[in-house]
Design goal:
elongated; alpha/beta; 5-stranded mixed beta sheet; 238 residues; Dihydrodipicolinate Reductase, domain 2; 8 helices
């Protein structure tokens, strides 16, 4: 498979390493230094594009790639208030798009555990739920996209919480997400249910970027030659 990398920072380099190890070819690498190379002709050399850029440029990068007729896997966070708009654009242009706030196989299993735990805790009003996420200091958005996904799952299954806030909760219906930036942490997410009797806690801790990179390449392999909107649930059969 021929892959275009949109974003060639630490994550892009990790994806390149995994992709080559799995027998794929990187035919295009785009970063801030060679934006002029991001053309339709160059992009169409690839079977799939994998996009890890920044919150301010992700939407346009994805839109342009779909417009070029190239399937896109995106893991950029901090722009997802426009995700539905992008999905509509993709469908209107008969494109292929897969977005995940986190490509790690472990995190996507963690998502399923989080939903199940929230459903079990729904009738247990004596437990207060809070969340914490820890990342390295270079991470540009807070809370993380993974934390937002976890929080929205809790809101879906726990009716007593109606909104998440990126601070200590100021009202009973708020779900607090506490964000910490500590080097060299690649990513830890904690969902905690606390009562006067005990605590129930689930935690995912990433040790490096390899899990994210591997998942992104698996997603690219999955969407090649497909049309439509996909997620990691389809990739992993969850």
């Amino acid at each position: 498979m021929r892959i275009a990398l949109l974003g060639y920072g630490k994550m892009g380099k990790a994806i390149e390493e995994i992709a080559i190890r799995r027998g794929h070819e990187i035919v295009l690498k785009i970063n801030e230094e060679n934006l002029g190379d991001f053309t339709k002709e160059n992009a169409q050399r690839a079977d799939v594009a994998i996009e890890f850029t920044s919150p301010h440029s992700a939407f346009e990068n994805i839109r342009q790639t779909i417009g070029f007729g190239v399937p896109v896997v995106s893991g950029s966070t901090g722009w997802t208030e426009r995700l539905e708009e992008m999905q509509t654009y993709c469908n209107e242009h008969n494109g292929t798009f897969l977005y995940a706030s986190n490509f790690s196989v472990g995190v996507n299993i963690f998502f399923e555990v989080n939903k199940r735990l929230a459903a079990l805790m729904a009738p247990r009003s004596e437990y207060e739920v809070t969340m914490e996420e820890i990342h390295h200091t270079q991470k540009k958005d807070a809370p993380s996209g993974t934390a937002i996904t976890l929080a929205e799952q809790v809101l879906e299954f726990l009716p007593r919480k109606t909104q998440w806030v990126n601070k200590a909760a100021g009202a009973a219906d708020q779900l607090a997400i506490i964000s910490k930036r500590i080097d060299p942490a690649p990513g830890t997410h904690i969902v905690r249910y606390s009562s006067s009797i005990d605590d129930i806690e689930i935690t995912h801790t990433a040790h490096n970027r390899q899990g994210f990179a591997t998942g992104a390449v698996l997603a690219a392999e999955f969407i090649k030659n497909k049309k439509g909107i996909f997620s990691m649930k389809e990739v992993l059969g969850l």
